[in-house]
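name: query_chain
kind: protein
chains: 1
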Amino acid sequence: MTDQYIEVVTEVDLRRRVAQLGTEIARDYEARSPILIGILTGCMPFIADLSRQIDLELSIDFLSLTRFGEDGRVGIALDLSLPVAGEDVIIVEDIVDTGLTLTSLRRIIEMHEARSVATVALLDKAARRIVDVAVEYRGFEVGDEFLLGYGLDWEGRFRNLRSLWAVMDMAALRDHPGEFSMERFRAPLPAGVGSGR
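structure:
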């Protein structure tokens, strides 16, 4: 792989850290049954892996948001299906940067009268923070590079990569996305496949 793309978090490190986060949450919510609320769509691999690492009875629900304006205002494209009034809620985010969207999101959950609200974020771009917002559980602090993989996408592609990659040259990705795709997804064919036999 050229230096246009750099693997910043390996699959092994992701698995290890997600397991640690699950253990921390299970300890902190002992004897409770929290509701994990995943923010679509980037959270999907993370919430799937994280939920299996939390040794508690829990529920899972999802929110889909639309963001508009520079101030991070959000609207709800898909609302919760579970009632959260009186419940312990853990927001599951793929990435937190400015904190504007997360601040609005926590306010939305609080308006549903949840008993408690916490956030677990796989990635934290803390250097980009504009507003101070609580992130009780965080996986990795990362820089300002554009990231791909493990739920993070470019135009809907590359969410299914098993590790996280920093794009060091966005022009190269825009102009030749197939080069990155071929390198990451190329795999030898099973014996006998494509051999003409």
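note: The beta strands are 5-9, 35-40, 59-68, 73-78, 88-96, 116-124, 137-141, 146-148, 164-167.
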